[in-house]
Specification:
With about 270 residues, the protein is of the alpha+beta class. The protein is built from six helices and twelve strands. A hairpin with a 4-residue loop joins β11 and β12. The radius of gyration is 20 Å and the shape is globular.
Length: about 270
């Protein structure tokens, strides 16, 4: 994974993070970005910032629709709250995700493969996000046996890297992102290549008293390949999160900073 704090560049480069100064004990939320040097990955930072800005801008429109619903259904809900959080937060994070290819392919692996409940979340285990809204791009599948990862230094210097060929779809139609509905039904999610997807997280669940529910989700790798192909999955997730001093649980006065620390403790 590669993490980036979108608050450093969203709505203008060099945006102030003064609201985070009192939270130096939360480096996982306030640390400055570390980018690959331009000579090593030419064009990477510019493109990454552009696509993250697009996703956050779109998330703000989704948040506006959520706000209309919340105002109608939740007594005392602050009009425009979620859109304000999405647009003004300095803690929104982006995560560039690479799901490594399976090491067990070939005819013998296919013969021995037995689908099971335990294998459903073989690429990423079932979890919920702890922000408000998560923006997702469609997944890109790359056969790394045909196009092995190489150092950008091996290419001629230019303003951008050469295009990397990718597959039109996952080799196994069962692989990909799944969610679990409120009724417990497992549903496969397919985001078209020219679209974004959004799901709700645990902070929004707390803020709205459960009117919006965090979405449990996982990623399935699918069955082994018949040949020696090594297919990796790649995608980008942007987690819009409240400011560190934003109260997410009015009943206890819990701030997002305190909630984030609780979430981190769950995984220790």
């Amino acid at each position: 994974s590669f993490y980036v704090n979108c608050g450093e560049f969203y709505q203008g480069s060099g945006r102030s993070k003064s609201g985070n100064d009192a939270y130096s004990e939360y480096p996982e939320l306030t640390a400055s970005n570390v980018w690959p040097v331009e000579e090593f990955l030419p064009g990477f930072r510019q493109f990454f910032e552009e696509i993250c800005n697009l996703i956050v801008d779109t998330a703000a429109l989704v948040a506006r629709a959520c706000d209309r619903y919340a105002v109608a259904k939740i007594e005392g809900y602050e009009p425009g709250y979620l859109e304000r959080v999405v647009r003004k937060s300095t803690t929104t994070k982006a995560r560039l995700l690479h799901y490594f290819p399976s090491d067990t392919n070939g005819p013998s692996a296919v013969r021995e493969y037995e689908p099971s409940e335990e294998a459903l979340d073989s690429w990423c285990t079932t979890h919920i996000d702890h922000g408000c809204l998560t923006g997702l791009t469609s997944a890109v599948y790359i056969d790394e046996s045909a196009h092995p990862p190489t150092s950008p230094a091996s290419h001629n210097s230019s303003s951008s890297l050469p295009p990397l060929p990718f597959l039109p779809k996952a080799p196994d139609s069962n692989s990909g992102l799944y969610i679990r509905s409120r009724l417990g039904t497992i549903i496969k999610i397919a985001i078209p290549s020219d679209c974004l997807g959004f799901q709700t997280g645990e902070s929004l669940q707390l803020i709205t008293g459960g009117k919006f529910q965090a979405v449990p989700h996982f990623v399935r790798a699918g069955r082994p390949a018949e040949d020696d192909s090594r297919v990796a999955r790649n995608t980008l997730a942007v987690f819009t999160q409240p400011g560190l001093d934003e109260v997410v649980d009015k009943s206890t006065g819990k701030t997002y900073a305190q909630f984030s620390r609780e979430v981190a403790e769950r995984f220790k």
